Structures
1.
Amino acid sequence: MAESRQLADKADAAAGRKPRPVIDRDICKGCGRCVAACPRHVLRLSSELNRGGVRPAEYLGEGCTGCAICYYNCPEMYALEVHTPAQGKPRAGRAGRAGVAGKASPH
Ligand code: SF4
Ligand code: SF4
């Protein structure tokens, strides 16, 4: 049962229904600050190297609360954003779009 809940959480995160960090693995410098700062321990460094030859941060796929602490601890511009589902009324002109805490909003 717990396993099916985990799969549902990952599907929700992937579909933007739950908060989630979005990491650009090739911009990430693998410093690990976000991993250390996350109060939910839902980030880790990948076992695979990125184009820069470092192990980038990655999301475990579930458990993110959208607190954005990882974002505020990341020294690399454009490496990390936190996307959160829209709450209540959609923002003007952006119906249903998720909120983004990040240096580079994709829209
Ligand atoms: S937003 Fe908060 S809970 Fe989610 S990955 Fe970042 S630090 Fe962890
Ligand atoms: S803090 Fe930023 S640069 Fe450092 S590992 Fe996390 S995402 Fe990568």
Note: The CA atoms of residues 19 and 84 lie 4 Å apart.
2.
Amino acid sequence: MEPNSREVRKCNLCHRRIFFALTKNGQWQALDAEAEPALGSVAAYRRGIRLWWCRSLLAADADEYPPHPLERRFTPHAQTCPGWKPQQQEITGIVVESSPRALPQRQQAAIEGRPSNVVPLQRRRSGSAT
Ligand SMILES: [Zn+2]
């Protein structure tokens, strides 16, 4: 079963054919419209009129539930879209800190080329307990 012409639309970024399927968490996931019987990492099936459900085949419990004969394997469009930008975008208007250290933090972020609202993790080494 393939998505029909009413379910397929074009990606806003690359204009390739995609369709949307609902995950068990209630999120819409964009999938490539052409099935990938061997390599697709998402199993999807039509649940109703213009409604597809999908689940990841990379999840921890995927081995317990192999693809059902009614499910088809698809690829998430985020994997194949050339216009997709997976890195975190800067959120304008968010101030990380209001303390006197905020200005060096922002300056350091600009020097390192990361958005100012992304704070690098600084962990104490496990062997250096005081
Ligand atoms: Zn795209």
Note: Residues 9-80 form one domain.
3.
Amino acid sequence: MAHRKNYTKYVPRAPANKPDKEALQNEALLFFTLRTDSEETMLKPSEEFCYLVSEKWWDAYETYLGYNEIIEEKPLKKNFGQKYPGPINEDIISDQEKAYKFSSNFEQYQYLSTYLRPKALENESYVFVDSKLWEHIYGLYGGKPIKRPLRHDFSSPTCDDLQKSHIIFLTHSRIKELASDPKTKNNKLQTIFGGFKNIQFHETWKMKDLMIFLSSLLEAETGIPNWNLKVWRLNNYLFLDDFWKSLENFLEQFPEQDKFLIEAKEFTNERFDGINLSRLLKNEYYLVVEAKEDENEGFYFDELKLTSQDIKELQGYCEYCSEKDTILSWTCLCKEAFYCSEKCKYKDLPFHHYICDIAYESDSDNEELQEIKIEEFGYDRGLKNLGNTCYMNSVLQAFKKTKVPEDLFYNNTYLKCIKEKREENKQEEDNKFLLSKKFSKLMKKLSIYDKEPLAPWSWKQTFAFYFPNVKKN
Ligand SMILES: [Zn+2]
Ligand SMILES: [Zn+2]
């Protein structure tokens, strides 16, 4: 087990009575057996869950028992039996106040409502054990149970961290109720709906798992089965206040006006089939669930499409670095992801490409295909270091000084070569085609005068995409 020293919160409490030496030694031996069993049990593919134990507590417990000395048959240290380890996990659990409270008839998913504090990491802040070992120490010391899914697709089992989002459910009956109640107008919607709550999902769930989970959650809450759902992810430039205001406007005009243009992207199973939620969601995303009981009723929410004018003036939080209230002057070609800087845009590519087919084609193609004339390409533009890219930059600069760019790229001769290759074997050459286009563009950019050095993010990320052993960021 890895150990980490910088714990902050946890302070072991003193025992009520002086500990019984023999009892502690017996406990250490029992702990040894349970620990060995636990490691074995968790290797079994049938084992689906584990329990987390705070590393800090674990260390304190071992010291208290004189565990290492007893197992290695060494003399006990002075601190043996001195500091009672106290309740388990209090240092790694986070404040549950804003969390979604699952009703008691949603029992099979109750464990999803336990939140870890931010930055609590496997093998640094906690270890994981089987239920038998957990029940033993929990029975003795108490504390907070943290149950997590166990994954077996690696050489050793790992415990899944959960995907965290904020969620709000807007059911049709609730919408109607709020729209017909004149008091709504004078109340803040947040207080009526309870606002967004934290919710957690399995990282490895797919859209269809999420849909099943959300509709069974609604069924547990309302007793009504077979919900029809649409899941929306609010756009990252949207301020929550603006969202509440537009929702309030919609309610005021309901039912005369029954369309709500939501500034969000719809998460559908068709679009994201087979992709893990950890690829689709980042922690702290805002999800809105429109839920209708009646199959024959239409959905009220529709996507608000942005105009290019809107996009120019966007301000919000950056999709990559989550910087708040910033000007979002960089966007993907899909116009669905917005960033504060070029760096953030390219650093987000390995994530964004899971939800965007054109993520790697984010440079303008017209410019790409233009030839550049001999008079234009005399310049040697500098390259910015993107972090460990100075070797790559040197190779690029050296390559640029050869005859190849002039023969192949400035005049777009490479396009002919690719065309011939593609006719022979289309599929395989497609990837190389995109990479060559990127490379040609890079060579051109490096040859044309610009006093600013170039940051080759686009090239580097595309390259890393096709050659995954190259680090993406
Ligand atoms: Zn950013
Ligand atoms: Zn995109």
Note: The chain has four domains: 21-92+120-158, 162-305, 307-357, 363-473.
